[in-house]
Specification:
2 copies of one chain form a homodimer. The first copy, chain A, has 11 helices and 18 strands. Chain A is α/β, with parallel strands linked by helices and about 375 residues long. In chain A, helix 2 runs antiparallel to helix 5. The interface between A and B is large, with 65 and 65 residues.
Chain lengths: ~375, ~375
Amino acid sequence: MKLDGKHMRTIWVGEDGWSVEIIDQTKLPHVFETTPLRSVDDAARAIRDMLVRGAPLIGGTAAYGICLALRGDPSDENLEAASRQLNATRPTAVNLKWALDEMTHAVRNLPREDRVAAAYARAAEICDDDAECCRMIGVHGLEIMKEHGKRKMDEPVNVLTHCNAGSLATIDWGTATSPVYHAHEAGVPVHVWVDETRPRNQGAALTAYELGHHGVPHTIIADNAGGHLMQRGQVDLCIVGTDRTAANGDVANKIGTYLKALAAHDNDVPFYVALPHSTIDWSLDDGFEIPIEERGAEEVTQMTGRLADGAVVTVDIAAPGSPAGNPAFDVTPARLVSGLITERGICRASAEGLLELYPERAGDEA
Amino acid sequence: MKLDGKHMRTIWVGEDGWSVEIIDQTKLPHVFETTPLRSVDDAARAIRDMLVRGAPLIGGTAAYGICLALRGDPSDENLEAASRQLNATRPTAVNLKWALDEMTHAVRNLPREDRVAAAYARAAEICDDDAECCRMIGVHGLEIMKEHGKRKMDEPVNVLTHCNAGSLATIDWGTATSPVYHAHEAGVPVHVWVDETRPRNQGAALTAYELGHHGVPHTIIADNAGGHLMQRGQVDLCIVGTDRTAANGDVANKIGTYLKALAAHDNDVPFYVALPHSTIDWSLDDGFEIPIEERGAEEVTQMTGRLADGAVVTVDIAAPGSPAGNPAFDVTPARLVSGLITERGICRASAEGLLELYPERAGDEA
């Protein structure tokens, strides 16, 4: 990720060699601020309160959360308790459980005195692996971008994306944004329609922020606008991320993704979902089994922004006393997905498609 | 419309007998404030800056705008100039042109000295007619609500609506809300999912406000959430309004309506559009010919709300420097519409359906 011209990741070990630094994403785009995590409680809070968000980054943070827990107490009991605590923070993204299982697997057969070092090593690997997966998603996605680029001649390829499946949602590169960044670097003209993504505005606040820092042309739109733009031929393809992909290719992603997939389908606009292997839940043969998080009403009825003097304030925007509902994800059925872009290549959104790329998983699926 | 237990309309002639009073809807739901219109410029500004909005209320305000213009100068030239000025305020709602044509027709053959009185009389008729049309939309729509009510036993009928097609968008009753109010009064349990309706939040700000004052149970949701709720069987039917309906049954309505119609279609949820005759543009045989207003980027990048101390402020919510696009309407093709609820009854969304209700229009359509 490029910020103010410098390359950085979203999570790293601090100069003290053990605390974990993150960007507090609840403060973006108004204030850029990093904050240290020094305990498993800090890590759990960072995930639950969405200082970090995005399935891959949630996984990376949970991995380091285990490291922080084991520093205090490397016992089996504490490993289990920390894993349980972190796993309970958010229900939908499967990378969380995946990373916790990986961490447990990496340390449980080691003597206690070796566990902390092994945990930090495995957490670093998980993060490096995610960054590399996201880079490869971009390498494969670039081919799609080039195809569209050829058809558009010198016109920019118009990509619509929903929420932030960008560098900020991962360790680096992003999932949905990686093909965009690769295209931009390869000289394929690209323009991104950024869905605002209510209620937390991850599009307007985070995706627009990182695209701006990378110099990628983009336009923020209300979540309501994408269908209209597709009807008018102003979207060449959609690329989104996913918080959990079932073995049949159904994808849970930020609430509203399903609506965009319907519009893409209705207008023959290709609809791609970009994901690393860690987002696939091989135990689910149907996306409608994925638990959908219900979040607080205040995310809908309030909004945080900058006053003209730069002060950041939260305001009530809805009719006083009106209740609000806030489901955070929806499930897009595989039939609406043109393809899955993974670190191993692009496949159809189906059990067969996924098993062609991950043949070692044959038999794992439900 | 009931506000604080009192019945009121959205537009009326002031106590002086000539100025026109409106509710400044840009201040809702934070502050309830009426404001007088004393000139055609005031009326044009009220429409353009959306102190009044909603196709029928725009029509009523334009009618009174002609009255105010003629008070100063009842000449043909001024009648034409005022009509042109008002017609240029907003491009999508056809009620604007319809009302202006009605007003011109009402006064142009009269001597100048009789024009002002005739204009006020016709404007009052236009408003009374709209209120009666909206009441009848509710009478017909109530039958649909009762049918769903029977199936739901004692459970509330869950209606999803988008934007504000309520009393505040009309003279009284609303279009989409009229069946809801009639059901509520008839003792049919009803609950409304209120789409927030970004970027101007007419759902969270206006629909929730008026449903609350009427005591109708409702829940505000992000525009992204409706598809998910339909997938989970939590929506029994959708009812929305329209700013212009083509002769083939295609409907232009607030941006995002098309996405909800797609989701309703995908989940076998009935999708109704409620409208008075004045919203039908018989000259257009295809909704995609309807001009779509592009509004300012600041509606997307800024938000107005209440601080804890009650002060109303506007904040920047998006990444600094990021551009935004703001198409204000989209077109829902007739194939996605289950039926049109009009003052004359309910018909299929098709040329044939509309002509069954409006046989006198045979030959008028394009």
